[in-house]
Design brief:
Number of domains: 1
CATH architecture: 3-Layer(aba) Sandwich
Distance between the termini: 14 Å
Strand order of the largest sheet: 2-1-5-8-7
Strand content: 15-25%
CATH class: Alpha Beta
Order of helices and strands: EHEHEEHEEEEHHH
CATH superfamily: Collagenase (Catalytic Domain)
Radius of gyration: 17 Å
Low-confidence stretches: none
Structural class: alpha/beta
Number of strands: 8
Length: 207
């Protein structure tokens, strides 16, 4: 993969104009000059695929014990992202955002993911499902959810650019978040160490 490049973002959900604008703005701030352009699209999943690939899992902490929820494999979304074609622009790096709960196709024990990056295919996913506070009333709840989506989007794109490792700086957006409190506590920005890694990549690709 060569940098800089174009980034394609596909919304597998209904999203506000504010979210998409803030998402693009913050991705550009985090990865300054890494993307020529960021293109938005909407690609719906086939309902037959959802039924075929979904699986039921208990979600005891958020919904009643006897109730189950369908959780969807990340591969389903990667396949859809690969189908997205733009007749004018090459999109070597793609991000998908969905409201559906996800489990990892490569590690089936990883369930209800915030997001995942398929580094070799240059694809990233973010699920808003577990970024929400079920049963909790929050002030400015919409703004909090939007910030979480933006942070996790930058995080997964960061894996594609910087690699699989997480940052040890708890304030860095590339730090691993095991719960929503950790997502909220970390910054929307890269730490100095991660910025230095970006600079090294810039030097390697001469831009």
């Amino acid at each position: 993969m060569l940098f800089p490049c174009n980034l394609g973002i596909n919304m597998f959900l209904n999203s506000s104009e504010t979210l998409t604008q803030n998402l693009i703005e913050n991705i550009n701030l985090a990865f300054d000059s890494f993307f020529y352009n960021i293109f938005l699209s909407n690609w719906s999943l086939d309902s037959k695929d959802l039924i075929t690939f979904g699986r039921e899992e208990f979600k005891q902490n958020s919904i009643p014990f006897k109730e189950t929820v369908l959780v969807y494999p990340t591969d389903l979304f990667y396949k859809s992202l690969n189908k997205i074609q733009n007749i004018r622009y090459l999109l070597p790096l793609k991000l998908g955002i969905t409201h559906l709960p996800l489990y990892s196709s490569t590690h089936s024990n990883l369930i209800f993911l915030y997001g995942e990056a398929h580094i070799s295919q240059k694809l990233a996913l973010v699920s808003t499902y577990n970024l929400q506070d079920f049963g909790t009333i929050l002030h400015s709840k919409h703004d909090i959810l939007e910030k979480r989506i933006i942070k996790e989007s930058i995080h997964e794109i960061g894996h594609i650019i910087l690699g699989v490792d997480h940052c040890i700086d708890t304030n860095c957006v590339m730090n691993y978040s095991r719960n929503l409190e950790k997502v909220d506590d970390k910054s929307i920005f890269l730490c100095n160490s991660c910025i230095e890694k970006l600079e090294e990549i810039r030097e390697n690709y001469n831009f």
